[in-house]
Write a structure and sequence with these properties.
Keywords: DNA-binding, Transcription, Transcription regulation. By secondary structure, the protein is mostly helical. The chain has helices at about 15-25, 35-40, 45-60, 75-85, 90-115, 120-130, 140-150, 155-170, 175-195, 200-220, and strands spanning about 5, 10, 60-65, 70.
Length: about 220
């Protein structure tokens, strides 16, 4: 993969070119500069430009029209995530960024859930926690139920998006021991919410989420396999 230096850090040129498209506010159907123009603008070889364009084409961000040039496809929420899912970013940094976003979303959900909790929703969540199978398919269901109780549709959509990114980045799956720990922490968080103990619920949720970074490191440690 062609790389470019940004400060002291190597950055994939495909990422630089993608950011260029966003910063220039290209719209769907807009034509990009030619390979030669991009090469001169960024001071890189045309082979690096071709490689980056090929990568963006594979991600569905641009299309190549034979004999005409490269054109931007529709830039929407899904396409904004493609570079992340396509590994244009350092994976370890990506984990930290996802987790920072996830903490912000889930803690706000906790605040609203404590404020808006109803007996019906509390019973629904408690019933779920006492009957749930401890497997990876159910891992996010508790947080989704809290979001339902919080009652903010924008937060629900944002949560779903971040959950999908986290699933992608932790595609190796969860160990049984990890699921047992996670389930116990869910129970502890729920008890604090049920008792309307906001400080305790926030602390427990944040600790629970940050544990995910440690989990990721363990899963990617070859000595743990």
């Amino acid at each position: 993969m062609a790389e470019h230096f940004s400060g002291s850090e190597k950055v994939p040129f495909s990422k630089i070119l993608y950011n260029f498209i966003l910063q220039k506010d290209y719209k769907s159907g807009d034509k990009l500069p030619t390979e030669r123009e991009l090469s001169e603008h960024f001071g890189v070889g045309r082979s690096s430009v071709r490689e980056a364009l090929s990568g963006l084409k594979a991600l569905g961000i641009i299309e190549v029209r034979q004999g005409s040039g490269c054109y931007v496809k529709e830039i929407n929420l899904a396409s904004l995530l493609l570079p992340i899912q396509g590994q244009l970013y350092n994976k370890r940094i990506l984990v930290e960024e996802i987790m920072e976003t996830r903490v912000a979303i889930e803690l706000e959900i906790i605040r609203l859930a404590v404020k808006r909790a109803t007996p019906i929703m509390l019973d629904k969540i408690e019933s779920y926690l006492t009957s749930v199978e401890q497997d990876s398919a159910q891992h996010f269901a508790f947080e989704q139920l809290l979001a339902e109780m919080a009652g903010n549709r924008i937060l629900i959509m944002m949560q779903s998006l971040v959950h999908e990114l986290w699933r992608d980045i932790t595609s190796k799956g969860w160990r049984r021991r990890s699921m047992e720990i996670s389930h116990q922490e869910h129970l502890d968080i729920f008890r604090s919410i049920k008792n309307r103990d906001l400080p305790s619920a926030l602390t427990k949720m944040e600790n629970h989420l940050l544990w995910g970074v440690k989990y990721f490191d363990e899963m990617n440690d070859p000595t743990q396999s």
